[in-house]
């Protein structure tokens, strides 16, 4: 069952998808920790006309989560949540790094599979953790962020729609121009880490 914050976020994403018919908008999967849903909702409400948001990801309620077949689980994540997105935006909050589902979603975003192409990858720090503290970035994202030369980039919370549009376009372009820089060899995170 979805929390009130998650239901609010779904509603905001649905409304944002219909706010403009700009053909240049990319479908972006928002990868976040459930505890940050209110801030992610604000992000969608403020910037949802810049991209087409896809917002709900993996949860313990998904039937495929208990499978011991890692490739099957990752294929299901791609099929269920990422299939029509072209960019994954990791919304970095205080404990995003600690969540196994964030790691699984990023892993799935970075791989080509039999039915889907990989997604571009970027991270945005939420206002509640406005600093660029490297300990807050999920490890798999950090593996791909290397200043201006890595596959992914890590951005502060956007100040303008044009700035965000440019960042998304850069992540989208990296899908074809920076694939040799993808680092996705880290073992899949098997459990949540403690974060207080």
Q: Tell me the β content.
A: 5-15%
Shape call: globular
Query: What CATH architecture do you see?
Result: 3-Layer(aba) Sandwich
Radius of gyration, in Å, reads 15 Å
For the record, what CATH class applies? Alpha Beta
CATH topology grouping: Rossmann fold
Domain count: 1
Query: How many beta-strand elements?
Result: 5
SSE order and pairing:
Blueprint: H1 4-17, E1 27-31, H2 37-47, E2 52-54, H3 70-82, E3 87-92, H4 100-109, E4 120-125, H5 139-144, E5 153-155, H6 161-177
Parallel strand pairs: 1-2, 1-3, 3-4, 4-5
Helix pairs in contact: 1-2, 3-4
Question: Can you describe this structure?
Answer:
This protein is an alpha/beta fold and 196 residues long. The chain has one domain (4-181): Toll/interleukin-1 receptor homology (TIR) domain (Rossmann fold, 3-Layer(aba) Sandwich), CATH 3.40.50.10140. Helices cover 36% and strands 12% of the residues. It contains six helices and five strands. A five-stranded parallel beta sheet has the order 2-1-3-4-5. Helix 1 packs parallel to helix 2. The longest helix has 17 residues, at 161-177. The protein starts with a helix and ends in a 19-residue tail after the last helix. The mean pLDDT is 85.
Which features does this protein show?
single chain, 196 residues, alpha/beta, Rossmann fold, 5-stranded parallel sheet, 5 strands, 36% helix
């Amino acid at each position: 069952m979805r929390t009130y914050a998650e239901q609010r976020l779904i509603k905001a994403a649905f409304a944002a998808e219909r706010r403009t018919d700009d053909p240049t908008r990319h479908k972006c999967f928002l990868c976040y920790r459930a505890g940050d849903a209110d801030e992610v909702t604000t992000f969608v409400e403020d910037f949802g006309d810049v991209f087409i948001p896809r917002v709900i990801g993996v949860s313990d309620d998904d039937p495929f989560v208990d499978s011991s077949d890692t490739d099957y689980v990752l294929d299901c994540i791609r099929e269920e949540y990422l299939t029509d997105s072209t960019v994954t935006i990791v919304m970095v909050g205080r404990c995003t790094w600690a969540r196994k589902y964030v790691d699984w979603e990023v892993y799935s975003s970075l791989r080509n599979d039999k039915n889907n192409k990989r997604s571009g990858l970027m991270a945005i720090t939420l206002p509640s953790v406005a600093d660029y503290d490297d300990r807050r970035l999920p490890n798999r994202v950090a593996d791909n962020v290397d200043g201006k030369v890595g596959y992914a980039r890590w951005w502060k919370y956007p100040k303008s729609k044009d700035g965000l549009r440019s960042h998304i376009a850069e992540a989208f372009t990296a899908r074809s121009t920076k694939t040799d820089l993808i680092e996705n060899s880290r073992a899949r995170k098997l459990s949540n880490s403690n974060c207080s």
